[in-house]
Amino acid sequence: MRKTHGWVAVALAALVLSTNSAACTPRKIVSTFLCTDEYVFRLVPRERIAALSFEAADRHPVVSTIADDVIRAGIPTIRPSAETVMNYAPDLVVMYAGTMPALHAALARAHVKVLDVPWANSLADVRRVTAMLGEKLDARDRAARMLAEMDRKIAQAKAHAPHPPVRTLIYEANGYSGTGAMTDELMADAGLVDVVAGLKPTRLDTIPIESVLANPPELLILSGDKSVTNSRADLVQHHPALKAFKDTTEWARLTPLLCPGPWSADAVETFSTLGAKARVLARAKTSR
Q1: How far apart are CA 148 and CA 156, in angstroms?
Q2: How many other C-beta atoms lie within 10 A of the C-beta of residue 246?
């Protein structure tokens, strides 16, 4: 009899734990910022997402890596304000820490639960943030799979990284060239090295076209999307003088990495492919 009672107690305990877990799982989640949209969309089943920010489906210009998927899924997108967010009666609002202070305060006054997500500045940060969100959103398995896939892509890129590293310049609007710690880490994993330090940036952190011409990189990455109408800020990227080394430098055009996360490992694969092409071109140049 005691043994039977013991099994009954265990079963009841498991039922209580399961019930508590289900009660704690957020069922109507609203995300108010692009970088939290990216996480919520990947971690949470569609039926638990009440709304994402309008940026998640924005294609003018493309700023989201999930735009097409969000549109196909028919997920509501909003311009976050206290009224629009609370209109969805969320049981959890996911925000990036430090953003939208007025909205944050209004939600606090209305006793709406908010999850502040810290910014990630490195791959180590990405691992911590992803694991934390997996825990808070009851999506541990999905979070673990995302990190495993990220690590697989990075390991593969490292295994094929060229040596010495490919000299690379990411040249953005108005001549800016600031990659940041996260991008530098991804570039290094792919066998690229940023040459911006040797190009004598101005006090505004821009690179004059003359400096680029005097020290052409092996790989030149321009920012933006060819399908988007250019602005005056993009004119430097179309300077005719750059054509001087178009046959000796590998060129590419990429959308900047806006939101860090496990999906950033896709950039490692892209960097790796471009680096290999640049090194082939450089060897062909020296053999002439």
Answers
A1: 12
A2: 11
Distance, in Å, from the CA atom of 274 to the CA atom of 252, rounded to the nearest integer, reads 8
Distances (CA, A) of 205 to 94, 195, 196, 233: 33, 13, 10, 15
Output the pTM of the full model: 0.83
What the block records as the tokens of 5 is: 């009672």
Q: What is the pLDDT of residues 202-236, one digit of tens each?
A: 888 888 888 998 889 999 998 766 555 567 777 77
Classify residue 208 as exposed, middle or buried by CB count within 10 Å of its CB (0-12, 13-18, 19+): middle
46 CB contacts (<8 Å, ≥6 apart)? 73, 75
**DSSP class per residue in 16-79:** HHHHHHHHHS-SSEEE-SHHHHHHHHHHS-GGGEEEEEGGGG-BTTB--SSHHHHHHHT--EE-
**Dist CA 26 CA 44 (whole Å):** 10
Q: Which tops the pLDDT comparison, 227 or 111?
A: 111
- Could you say which DSSP state residue 229 is in? P
Q: How far is CA 207 from CA 91, 94, 176, 177, 199, in A?
A: 48, 38, 6, 7, 7
d(CA 178, CA 187): 13
Residue 43 neighbours by CB under 8 Å, 6+ apart: 133, 134, 137, 139, 142, 143, 146
**What is the widest separation between alpha-carbon atoms in the chain?**
90
Whole-angstrom distance, CA of residue 210 vs CA of residue 215? 9
